[in-house]
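Re: the multi-chain job from yesterday

Posting the exact lines I submitted so nobody has to dig through the queue logs.
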Amino acid sequence: MNFRTCAAFTLAFAVASTASYACGYCVEDRIASVYDHAMVSQALARKHQVAFFAINGPLMASSSQQQSIERIALTGKGVDSGSARVTIETAVLALAFDPRTAPLAAVEASLQSKLAVKGLSVQRLRVIDKAGEMKAPQP
Amino acid sequence: MRLSLSVPFLTLFLLTACNPAVDSSAAKSDPYDATKMDLKPKPATVSSERHSGAFASGSALSLTAELKPLDPEPVKTIQLDTTHRVIEIAPGVKFSAWTFGGQVPGPTVRARVGDKIRFSMTNRSDETVSGVQLLAAPMMHSMDFHAAMVSPQDKYRSIAPGQTISFEFTLNYPGVFMYHCGTPMILEHIASGMYGAVVVEPKGGYPTKVDREYVIIQSEFYAKLDPEKRKVDGVPLYVLDGDRLKAAQPTHTVFNGVHNGMVTHPLPAKPGERVRLYVLNVGPSRTSSFHVVGTIFDRVWIDGNPDNQFRGMQTVLLGSSNSAIVEFMIPEEGSYIMVDHHFANASQGAIGLISTEPKADTKDLEHHNMPATTTPTDPAAIAGKQDFESKCFACHSIGQGKKLGPDLAGVTKRRSAEWLTAWLRSPEKMLANDPVAQGLLKEHNNLPMPNQNLSDAEIRQYIEYFRWIDARPAGSVTAVATH
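And the result, structure tokens for all chains:
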């Protein structure tokens, strides 16, 4: 791989990993589109966590695709029943999970393998593990 | 030969010496010199430490239309927390709102070019209000200050309930700037009440002295009855109407958050005084043609910057998030009516008064709307009342005698609903065929009522309002305006 190609990949990776856009479409604004305070509060009360993922790949603005992704998310080990929230317009998925049953990495890996069948993948955006705190993913 | 050669050189020398681009004193006096602006603010911080107590604080804040004098401190520390509230946007219309500082519009910030704003905001939308269970669900919110020059991704990011964001910025331009929540859908967050104004004076202050200073913020509301039919204090709750919002068809267009704001509580002034209004149209979607009946704007500073001056304007056009400072004299005793001269907006509540009379609300008023003494709670009757007050007062009264048209107190006892419906739908047809209508025409100097092009829904609302009046004890509801 020559220097120019490497630089291009590095730039593309940096842009993709920050997932940062113009005002109104930055990471937190995308999270706002699926944020469900009742779901978050219930999860934290049970000492569970809430993870937010960007969905990458071809998405159609249809309720059936939204529901399909939610169903897939709920099949993951450790994922709280009824906790999946998806917004197609901003391509974001949120779910609550018990880190004692399945750590975040395992939840994410499960999502990746199941969504790959649909040509989709996920990218971790933020995690809430405590009230009032929204953490960026650790490298 | 030597003279001919030296002239061009001399000319060139003189031109260079006089070139303003190299005149350092001119560059130093430029108030918009970008090299002198603070364009390197520190990064914002987000924490889980929440504010408690008051939802707004800071000496630079004004909570009402009357603008407090400028705080001379060069660093203004302000706190504006987000919270959800039920507010009354019109008599009997309790609306589920989202707010800055617990009020709509949010508090006005007053500062000067060069001042630093030290801002913090806790998202307290998860805090319950005692006795009120009808607030919108907690959600993420953010702050967008039009007065600031900062990275939106850093300073204007959305925060979850329980989080606090803090950041600083220096004010580099004078103006009257909007602030609003920038969380998507921004349209919904603004239409739900999340906006306010920052007044930034020029560094040397304004070039004129005035006797009164008021902030006027025009905004739209898109309200519909709560689909779950919930009530607040026995009155139906109203929530955001998403369909009308996206079609930019408001139900109420108001000054300072209230239908006919400042009609029942006029802004005071005295004859001979000079009044300055800081006028901001926050939209979210419509334009304002701001006008004050009875006077002319001696000075208009577009977007609140004296460098953008017009003289002698009757009306100033403000797009959504545009502003202007207008100054005018109060020539004599009277009530001077602020309106949006897009009269569809005025009829929805964009009316206010600047009055030399301390209790102008007890007197008959020229023009437009006049509140009745009590208020219905049925939504159809409320709508009928508002429409009646905006369209019918020129010719009718309620319980105050005949005017150009009949006194409408008791009309549902004199006429059936069918007759009233036919009349309101097409007065000209009724005048051609109905003997009662023809009798009324003779009684009222052969002055026919013009067709108001009412929809069936509007007709039903009028009749509900008339029924509500006639169900009350005779004489208990009166309303009139005079010419």
